[in-house]
Amino acid sequence: MLENRSFDHMLGFSQVQGTDAENGNPTRIEGLTGTEENSSPNGGTIKVSLPADFILKADPGHEFTDVREQLCGKNGNFSSPTPPPDNVDPKITNSGYVTSFASKYPYGDWNTVMKCFPPERLPVLTTLAREFAVCDHWFSSMPGPTWPNRFFLHAATAGGLDHSPSLPKEIMSGAGEAYGFDNGTIYDLLDSSKLDWAIYCGDEFPQALHMKGMVENFSKGKFLPFTRFRSDLQVSNFDKSYVFIEPDWHPFTHFTCGNSQHPVDDVTRGEQLLKDIYEAIRNSPLWEKSLLIITYDEHGGFFDHLSPPTTVDPGDTTTNPDNNLNGFNFQQLGVRVPAVIVSPYVRRGIIDHRLYEHCSVLATVEKQFGLTNLTKRDKRASALNNLITLTDPRSDAPPTLPSPAVSGVKCTPVSEFIVEAKSVIENVITSLGLKTPKPVDPSLCGFVHVALLRKLATSSPREKDQIISESLKIQTEADALRYLRRVRRQALTTNVLQAVS
Predict the structure, then answer these.
(1) Residues carrying CATH 3.40.720.10, the chain
(2) How far apart are CA 396 and CA 348, in angstroms?
(3) 3-state secondary structure of 296
């Protein structure tokens, strides 16, 4: 699961053609015509256009209130609390993407959220879409940010969370506790059936650590570095029934130089990650019994012309009253995102127009291994097993994929000394009243808590109070970034010592 990109933004102009998954007829993805538009705050309209930039200076809004405006227009709202069943809410017009962006960046380039990638800028994702199956009606699980949407993929619920975690609530009231859900997670279901699993991590801050029980699983070795992924798959007795892959978020540099495809990072690094994952599986002994699902947690504020349908609420409880900041009822799916399904048993060039959401991953795993459902969401979600239509594995699946496009974006590491010095200087300037302290960005708050959980997972119980006390000192964005870098250095040092021993 990658980060913050809509379907139209990534594949809307790809012109992928193929075979309809349901009826076998020729079809094409439901992409863009080039006439789709949004109204500009200054009058007139802004149409979808090419090309999207490899990297952005601005991060479009994607909190619940942002997405509500993007879907329903400025001052619009969903038909809550009684949305039309199994239908598209008539209040959703997809008309507020530009106004939402302009309210956050009044002097920015308002075309940003309407720009899309041509296929030559995303050769890896586009090739996979053409070679296997692309689902062009896959929607995020709720109209909101990363954290709740990722929880839906792991637990078929967000436990009532409808916004990004906030720093004071998560650390001060949570006292180091992670998010819990009434019925647990897919990992609990796998454990109960004695099926092994692993989470491969691109960096030291896997978002999945932010769930109840995962600190213990971290200590049990369930979280593995992605650098091991290729070599692990070469072992003939690889025994993981389910693997989840976390990208390299790089939150300690505010999401630059990672490979999650966060908008402020170079999209080609995420392309390289997809290439590495696919080729590791394709050229391993596990290829002929594998299913790879590629999707994105949410749309990141980028335009998509399809209106998401309504759905059912998970049916569980809101595990913390502070979770439901916006009073959302979780009966509305979020914006459409890319989804590609890869397997030697998936025919080439399949286009699936059926409805999917993140809980379809859980429905697929549950169906495959005979597991029970977690909530009403994964019980209702369509599984992907119907795309496995071949009796014998394909012999024409490409062993390698094209190289990512050349973005020209350089990622030059900055010395830790310079970074720390800048943070100290900024704090001094702020303390003198010469500058207003920059609050911690919502996208960083959750990772601060992940860093706290990681420290707790690798420390003795007697150190818990001191570790939490240290995290409570975080007040500004500079504090948060320093804390993340410090935890990362400690983690890297621990890894080196373990390797030597």
Answers:
(1) 7-387
(2) 9
(3) strand
Q: Is the peptide bond preceding residue 398 cis, with omega within 30 degrees of 0?
A: no
DSSP 60-97: ---SHHHHHHHHH-TT----TTSPPTTS--TT--S--H
In one-letter notation, the amino acid at residue 398 is P
Largest CA distance in the chain: 71
Q: Which two tokens stand for residue 446?
A: 């959750």
* Residue 402 CB neighbour total at 10 angstroms: 13
What string of pLDDT tens digits covers the 501 residues of the chain?
999 999 999 999 999 999 999 999 999 999 999 999 999 999 999 999 999 999 999 999 999 999 999 999 999 999 877 777 778 889 999 999 999 999 999 999 999 999 999 999 999 999 999 999 999 999 999 999 999 999 999 999 999 999 998 775 555 445 557 899 999 999 999 999 999 999 999 999 999 999 999 999 999 999 999 999 999 999 988 999 999 999 999 998 889 999 999 999 999 999 999 999 999 999 999 999 999 999 999 999 999 999 999 999 999 999 888 888 899 999 999 999 999 999 999 999 999 999 999 999 999 999 999 999 999 999 999 999 999 999 999 999 999 999 999 999 988 765 556 666 666 777 677 677 767 777 888 889 899 989 988 888 888 888 888 888 888 888 888 888 889 999 998 888 766 444 444
Tokens of 166: 């906030």
Distant-in-sequence, close-in-space partners of 375: CB < 8 Å, separation ≥ 6: 155, 156, 157, 183, 314, 315, 316, 359
Cα 57 to the center of its chain, rounded Å: 20
Tokens of 31: 């992409």
Please give the CATH architecture assigned to the domain spanning 7-387: 3-Layer(aba) Sandwich (3.40)
42-45 long-range contacts, Cβ below 8 Å, gap at least 24? none
Query: Other C-beta atoms within 10 Å of 291: how many?
Result: 18
DSSP annotation string for 371-417? PPPSSHHHHHSPPSGGG---SS--S-S-SS-PPPP-------PPPHH
- pTM equals 0.94
CA 362 to chain CA mean position, Å: 15
